[in-house]
Amino acid sequence: MAFRVTGPGAAGARAAGRAGGSGAGPVRVKLCGATTPAQVEAAAAAGAGYVGLVFVPRSPRALGAEAARALAWAAPVGVAKVGLFVDPTDDDLAAVLDRVPLDMVQLHGSEAPERVAEVRARWGLPVMKAVGIGGPADLERARAYEGVADQLLLDAKAPAGAALPGGNGAAFDWGLLAGRGWALPWMLAGGLTPGNVAEAVRVSGARQVDVSSGVESAPGVKDEALVRAFVAAARG
Ligand SMILES: O=C(O)c1ccccc1NCC(=O)[C@H](O)[C@H](O)COP(=O)(O)O
C-alpha cells in the first residue's frame, strides 16, 4: 500500500465525508474542474465548500499530479478537495493519491457498489459516487450506493455521443428529486448556471450543488465573475 499524504487533505477528509446533505444553512457549492490555483482561490473566496480536480486524461479540465498538488495547496482549510476519476484502476488512484492531498474521491464512471466500497476501504477517504439521472429508474440505481458511498452526486446522464460522462452542461428534470429522502448527503449537478441554480435548488430540494461548464468562458476555463455569481445565486 502506498504511503498516505498528510497535510490539508487529511485534516478535512472526515468532515468532507459527512458534510451537508440536509438541514438548514446555506447551500454548499462544489466548483468542479478547476485548473489553476487562482480559480481555487476565487472559488474559496466566493464561498465554495468544495473544489473538484479532474483526473480524466481526455477531459479539457484534466490535471497531472504535480499541477493538482499546487491547486490542492491553494485551497484554504475548510474547502474540501475532491479528486474526480472515471473507472480508475488502483494504479491510477495511487498515482494521484500518493502525491496530492485530497479530502474525497469522486467516482464518475460505471463503478459498481463493490468497487466504491473497495476504494473507500483501501484509501481511507470518503467517496462520492456520481450517478447519471435520466428518469426514475436511475434514482433506484443510485439507491444501490446508499450503503457504501459517503455522498451521491446526482448528475445528468451524458447526452448520446458525449465524449465524457460529466461536465457536459446537460440538465435533467429536477422535479424527479423533489421530496425524496436519501440515507446520505447528496449533491445536484448537471447544466447548472448562475441563472438557473436558485430554481434548481427550489425544485429539487438540494442542499449541495455542483457546477463545471456553467461557469466557464471556454471548455476548461473558469470565469471568476461567473463563479462568484453562481455561488451567490446558490446560497442566496
Ligand atoms: O468535468 C469533466 O471534465 C468531467 C470529465 C469526466 C467525468 C466527469 C466530469 N465532470 C463531472 C462533474 O462533477 C461536473 O461538475 C458535473 O458533471 C456537472 O457538469 P456541468 O453540467 O458542466 O456543470
UniProtKB/TrEMBL annotation:
Annotated region (Disordered), positions in chain: 1-23
Keyword terms of this UniProt record: Amino-acid biosynthesis, Aromatic amino acid biosynthesis, Isomerase, Tryptophan biosynthesis
Pfam hit, one: PRAI
Span of domain N-(5'phosphoribosyl) anthranilate isomerase (PRAI): 30-232
Gene3D superfamilies the UniProt entry points to: Aldolase class I
Biased composition (Low complexity): 7-17
Pathway where this protein functions: Amino-acid biosynthesis; L-tryptophan biosynthesis; L-tryptophan from chorismate: step 3/5
Domain of life: Bacteria
Enzyme Commission identifier(s): 5.3.1.24
GO MF terms held by the record: phosphoribosylanthranilate isomerase activity
Catalytic activity: N-(5-phospho-beta-D-ribosyl)anthranilate = 1-(2-carboxyphenylamino)-1-deoxy-D-ribulose 5-phosphate
CDD domains, per database record: PRAI
InterPro entries: Aldolase_TIM, PRAI_dom, RibuloseP-bd_barrel, TrpF_fam
Enzyme class: isomerase
Family named by the database record: Belongs to the TrpF family.
Annotated protein name in UniProt: N-(5'-phosphoribosyl)anthranilate isomerase
